[in-house]
Input
Amino acid sequence: MSPDRPPTPGLLLAGGLAERMGGGDKPMRTIGGRSILSRVVARLAPQCDGLLLNANGDPARFAAHGLPVIADDLPGYPGPLAGILAGLDWLADNRPGTEWMLSAAADCPFLPHDLVARLHAARSGHNARIAVAASGGRRHPVVGLWPVDLRHDLRHALTVERRHAVGGFVARHDAAVANWPTVPLDPFFNANTAEDIAEAERLAALENR
Output
């Protein structure tokens, strides 16, 4: 690994309640005969030094993917920042010496193949502590690069300041941004509703042409 692309485990965020889809696990919905989670793993595994899954509830439902499943350690489903914190804490405890972690939503089936490399380039180029993805000029702060040693600041923001917005926390740290085009498709399209699943089917067929 080069200094500009240090070892970077990836955390897939699947801890949400999927309320807009009637509950259940959004990443386990299928597109083109494959689960969204399988598609995300296929995209990120070649880029990352191992993958983790942040999910709450019974981890056995994800056993087929063979990933460590890490639950939030904060009560009340406080959102993706809690999942990011859980991932950073797990790496600090289980992979000492790891400096960086990628986070990505586990319901984004078209993540770019150069995600980790370009986020590191943005981070290094701007001497920033955090780098986040954007497409078409719109930021996606859940898809980002995080230093493991930021976990103490993050826990303080969540538990003491009661600040749960990912974008707000990122803004405090003057994050670098890597931008992707949205043509022929938005690589950060995520499936939140039944209508989104239908659109994802269309996009997957387009991508496979």
In short: The domain at 10-207 is CATH 3.90.550.10 (Spore Coat Polysaccharide Biosynthesis Protein SpsA; Chain A).
